[in-house]
Amino acid sequence: MKKIITSKKAEGYIDVVVGIFAILMVVVVVLNIFQFMTLKQDLDEISGQLIETATYNGCFDSEFDERVESLQNQFFDFQVDTDAESYFNAHYKRVQLGDQMDVYVSVETYIQGLGMFRIPVTVTSHRSGISEKYWK
After folding, report:
1. Half-sphere exposure of 42 (CA within 13 A, CB side)
2. pTM of the model as a whole
């Protein structure tokens, strides 16, 4: 009985299995990081196009909403929040020439590869610009 307990014949197999498991977990983490980096690049592109539209028009109007819808059809669903330093006309969301405009784009995703666990991650992008339109 003592010989069976102190035998080390299967020790190498257990080390190999643990090593493979550790390598697979590292691969899953690297793939998730790559996914989040590409998602962040997409959000930066989207927010850049949206702030360009908003600053050119000097407001967050229906043309801005159409651009958001167009980009959602082109890329994926995302949430957009807008803000301005001060509004010339708050009802129409018009921003006077030279005032700062901000666009926040965010999307909620999950870390992949963890089986039944779903860990939510929110990736955001923020761009700001200066209004190029003078309202009388």
Report:
1. 16
2. 0.79
